[in-house]
Write a structure and sequence with these properties.
Blueprint: H1 2-9, E1 19-25, E2 31-36, E3 44-49, H2 59-76, E4 82-88, H3 104-123, E5 131-137, H4 139-150, E6 157-161, E7 181-184, H5 191-199, E8 215-216, H6 233-242, H7 257-261
Length: 262
């Protein structure tokens, strides 16, 4: 609650827009949904789903990440409005080893996530349809995959960061237009290769595998939690997707690019 209040108190500092509390519940591990900027009028919406160990007590970290995405996206939005949302609307696994290998957290939370995305569309009152991006981190990507697999993912772009697998086997199963699934895997992030055995698609395929078909974005951060480091290419790439500038995203060369060059 203190972290949420801190975000409200930060409104106006260095241009940060008003914050909106879209959901809050203290039962169990807690739930909270916090937006930077008004999603009902925003030209670009981004919804972030956090992963394992996320609960109400750690909400400040999710808010900080989406505040960084808002600033980076706002700088690239050419005057268009941006709203970035931290969505802790599900019971995330509590422990990496004891809970994260199980898929029921993803499938249990998927319907609520799809309803939330549908609600964003229904409540939007802007002059034109918004461009909506879903950003998942770690086990949050697994939930996003489960949401696409079991329902309709109401999004235009999907960004995965540090994904252990998304239950489906290819980008064409993510319920967004072709070419609009993006992935980041940083050096030193062990979660993808470990998680694939529990959450990969057919053949244990995960988004960072070439056969999945995602756009593999350049990352210059390290480990599992650095994708939102200030000033990083990892963060800027997410922002470019959020504002619909996918053509300007820095991509990794194909795995066999050097072999062909030689």
């Amino acid at each position: 609650m203190s972290a949420i209040q801190k975000r409200f108190d930060s409104t106006g500092i260095k241009g940060l827009p008003e914050a909106y509390l879209l959901g809050f519940n203290t039962e169990g591990d807690g739930r909270a949904i916090v937006a930077n900027g008004n999603p009902d009028t925003a030209d670009h919406q981004a919804v972030y789903v956090p992963g394992t160990e996320s609960d109400l007590s750690s909400m400040g970290g999710s808010i900080d990440r989406m505040t960084k995405v808002w600033r980076a996206a706002h700088d690239q939005a050419d005057g268009k409005s941006v709203s970035t949302i931290s969505w802790l609307g599900y019971d995330a696994p509590d422990d990496v080893y004891k809970d994260a290998p199980f898929e029921h957290y993803a499938y249990d939370g998927a319907p609520q996530f799809n309803r939330f995305l549908d609600g964003l569309e229904a409540s939007h009152s802007g002059d034109s349809e918004p461009h909506r991006t879903v950003i998942g981190h770690s086990y949050g990507t697994t939930l996003v995959g489960a949401a696409a697999q079991t329902g309709t993912l109401n999004a235009d772009d999907v960004v995965f960061a540090g994904s252990p697998g998304v239950k489906v086997s290819g980008a064409d199963e993510m319920d967004v237009p072709k070419g609009h699934v993006w992935n980041e895997e940083a050096d030193g992030d062990v979660v993808p290769d470990i998680g694939r055995w529990g959450h990969g698609g057919d053949g244990f395929v995960i988004p960072s595998d070439p056969e999945f078909g995602a756009n593999e974005m350049t990352t210059d951060t390290e480990g599992h939690s650095g994708y939102w480091d200030d000033g990083s290419t990892s963060l800027k790439n997410q922002a470019m997707v959020v504002v619909g500038k996918g053509d300007d995203v820095a991509l990794k060369p194909p795995p066999d690019a050097w072999a062909h060059a030689r």
